Amino acid sequence: MTLTEKEKGLLKDLRGQEQLCIGKYGKYAQDAKSEELKCLFNDLKSTEEAHLRSIDSLMGGTVQQVSGSISGSNNAHCCAVQYQNESDRQNDAFLCQDMLATEKHASALYNTSVFEFSDPAARKLLNHIEAEEQQHGEKLYAYMNANNMYC
Fold first, then answer.
1. pTM for this entry
2. CA proximity to 45, closest of 64, 30, 29
3. Is residue 23's pLDDT more than 90?
4. DSSP tag of 61
5. Selection from 56, 28, 58 nearest residue 43 by Cα
6. Confidence of residue 18 (pLDDT cuts 50, 70, 90)
7. Contact indicator for 55, 133 with CB cutoff of 8 Å
8. Alpha helix stretches (DSSP H) within 1-119
9. What's the rounded Cα separation, in Å, for the pair 45 and 138?
10. Do 96 and 149 touch, CB atoms closer than 8 A?
11. CB 3.0-4.6 Å disulfide test: which of 3, 43, 72, 85 passes with 7?
12. Do residues 54 and 129 touch, judged by C-beta distance below 8 A?
């Protein structure tokens, strides 16, 4: 597949966003006070690493095949965590709020890219990744909602 200059620019932006997500999830997994949140961040980091591999492949002209549905469940749920103190809960709330904003931005970049790519297989791949980014937001929201962190 031959990429246009615009597609190359979009992929560069998507690559940077995936690297940012990976870095933040890794750091935030270390900084989180709740073990449940540490696990969530590490799981989401793994998916972001897969996204980065897909983007790198696409930058090289190869479109990875995707299935018709996204991995995991669309029905994110989470149970409340017992925090040791309010400061720990506020720390985790900040981390979640920042990652939710980051996921919203990533999803928007993918949405734009879906409309800008000419190759149908590339659009399908980008749409698939966008759906997974939205699922990440849903999981973060579920954690935040269960722990009275979402305003």
1. 0.92
2. 29
3. yes
4. T
5. 28
6. very high
7. no
8. 5-31, 35-59, 86-116
9. 15
10. yes
11. 3
12. yes
Short-list 133, 112, 134, CA closest to 123 = 112
Return the DSSP state at 3.
P
What single letter denotes the amino acid at residue 20? L
pLDDT of residue 97: 98
User: Shortest CA distance to 41 belongs to which of 148, 146, 144, 151?
Assistant: 144
- Residues 92 and 149 sit within 8 Å (Cβ to Cβ): yes
pLDDT tens figures, 112-123: 999 999 999 999
Which of 125, 122, 120, 36 lies closest to 82 in space, CA to CA?
Answer: 36
Q: Is 120 exposed, middle or buried (0-12, 13-18, 19+ CB in 10 A)?
A: exposed
* Tokens at 151, concatenated: 């305003």
Residue 147 DSSP class: T
Q: How many CA atoms lie within 13 A of 73 on its CB side?
A: 6
- Cα–Cα distance measured from residue 92 to residue 100, given in angstroms and rounded to the nearest whole number: 12
Tokens representing 133?
A: 């980014």
Residue 150 pLDDT class (50, 70, 90 cuts): confident
Q: List the structure tokens of 56.
A: 């790198």
What does the alpha-carbon distance between residue 136 and residue 50 come to, in Å, rounded to a whole number? Answer: 14
